[in-house]
C-alpha cells in the first residue's frame, strides 16, 4: 500500500477521534462544571529503509481547557461556585477526585454530598457535617461554614501540583492521584453554580471544518483506490 494511503488513513482516524470529542463537548455544554476537551494531533516519521520515509499522524492525546464557566445564581443554600483557580474535593468509590461542579445537599447523616452521593471534603480532607437549620448556616468566601456564628468546617479548595497529570473521569471529575494541595487564593460564592466552559458556536464551527476535512480525505482515498485498480488492470492485461 502506498505511503500516501497510510498517511491519509491515520489522518482520517484522527479526524474521527476529534469529531467524537467535539460531539461530547456539545452534549455537555449544559453540564455544570464541565471542562471542554480538544484533540492534540502529533506526527512521527518512520524510516522505511532505502525507500522514502513514512509520515504518520496520531490523535490520541487530549487537552482540557480550564477557563472558568459562567456563573448562574440558584440561591440554593449548598450550591457553591469557585472564583479563581481550584477544585472541590469529593470522595468517590474510586478515591478522592477533583471537580468544579458545586451542587451539594446534606444526606441522611448530615454530610454534604453531590447528586451522585460523593461526600464533599473540607480543607483537612474530612467529610463536612451540617447540623441545624440551613437558614442559620453562613458560608464565608474562604469556605468557612458557621452555624450560629460557630465555625464547624471549611470547604476545601485544592489545586493540582502537576496539572498535566490530571486524568478526566466521568465528565466532571478529575483524578490527580495525591498530587494536589489546598489553595487560599480562590473564593467561594454561595448560591451560585458554575456552568460548562464549552463555547457551542466555536465547537459547531470546528465540527464543520472537521467534517469537510474528512470528506476531502475520503475523496482522495477513493481516487487513489481507483488509480491503483486501473494500474493493476493495465498490468494484468
Task: Determine the strand fraction and express it as a percent band.
Answer: 25-35%
Sequence stretches where pLDDT stays below 50 over 5 or more residues: none
| Inertia-based shape | elongated
Number of strands: 18
- What is the rounded distance between the termini? 21 Å
In this structure, how is the largest beta sheet organized? 5 strands, antiparallel
Q: Give the strand order, joined by hyphens, for the main sheet.
A: 9-5-6-15-14
Helix content: 25-40%
The Cα radius of gyration reads 25 Å
- Please indicate the count of domains: 2
Q: Could you say which structural class the secondary elements and strand pairing correspond to? A: alpha+beta
Number of helices: 2
Helix and strand pattern: HEEEEEEEEEEEEEEEEEEH
Descriptive report:
With 237 residues, this protein is an alpha+beta fold. The protein has two domains: 102 residues, no CATH class; 124 residues, no CATH class. It is 26% helix and 32% strand. The chain has a five-stranded antiparallel beta sheet, with no helix packed on it. Helix 1 packs antiparallel against helix 2. The mean pLDDT is 87.
Short description:
With 237 residues, the protein is α+β, with helices and mostly antiparallel strands. The protein has helices spanning 3-27, 200-235; strands spanning 37-46, 54-64, 71-73, 80-83, 88-92, 95-99, 105-106, 112-113, 119-120, 137-139, 144-147, 150-154, 158-160, 167-169, 173-175, 180-182, 187-190, 192-194.
Topology (elements, then pairings):
Layout: H1 3-27, E1 37-46, E2 54-64, E3 71-73, E4 80-83, E5 88-92, E6 95-99, E7 105-106, E8 112-113, E9 119-120, E10 137-139, E11 144-147, E12 150-154, E13 158-160, E14 167-169, E15 173-175, E16 180-182, E17 187-190, E18 192-194, H2 200-235
Antiparallel strand pairs: 1-2, 3-18, 4-17, 5-6, 5-9, 6-15, 7-8, 10-11, 11-12, 13-16, 14-15
Amino acid at each position: 500500500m502506498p505511503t500516501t494511503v497510510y498517511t491519509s488513513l491515520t489522518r482520517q482516524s484522527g479526524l474521527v477521534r476529534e469529531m467524537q470529542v467535539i460531539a461530547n463537548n456539545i452534549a455537555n455544554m449544559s453540564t455544570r462544571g464541565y471542562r471542554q476537551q480538544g484533540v492534540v494531533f502529533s506526527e512521527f516519521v518512520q524510516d522505511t529503509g532505502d525507500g522514502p520515509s513514512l509520515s504518520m499522524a496520531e490523535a490520541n492525546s487530549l487537552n482540557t481547557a480550564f477557563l472558568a464557566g459562567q456563573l448562574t445564581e440558584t440561591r440554593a443554600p449548598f450550591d457553591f461556585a469557585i472564583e479563581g483557580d481550584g477544585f472541590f474535593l469529593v470522595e468517590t468509590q474510586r478515591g478522592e477526585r477533583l471537580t468544579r461542579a458545586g451542587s451539594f445537599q446534606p444526606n441522611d447523616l448530615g454530610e454534604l454530598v453531590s447528586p451522585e452521593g460523593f461526600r464533599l471534603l473540607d480543607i483537612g480532607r474530612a467529610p463536612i457535617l451540617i447540623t441545624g437549620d440551613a437558614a442559620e448556616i453562613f458560608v464565608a468566601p474562604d469556605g468557612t461554614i458557621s452555624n450560629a456564628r460557630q465555625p464547624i468546617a471549611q470547604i476545601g479548595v485544592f489545586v493540582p501540583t502537576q496539572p498535566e497529570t490530571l486524568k478526566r473521569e466521568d465528565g466532571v471529575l478529575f483524578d490527580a492521584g495525591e498530587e494536589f494541595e489546598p489553595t487560599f487564593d480562590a473564593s467561594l460564592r454561595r448560591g451560585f453554580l458554575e456552568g460548562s466552559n464549552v463555547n457551542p458556536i466555536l465547537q459547531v464551527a470546528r465540527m464543520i471544518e472537521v467534517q469537510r476535512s474528512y470528506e476531502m480525505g475520503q475523496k482522495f482515498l477513493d481516487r487513489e483506490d481507483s488509480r491503483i485498480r486501473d494500474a493493476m488492470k493495465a498490468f494484468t492485461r
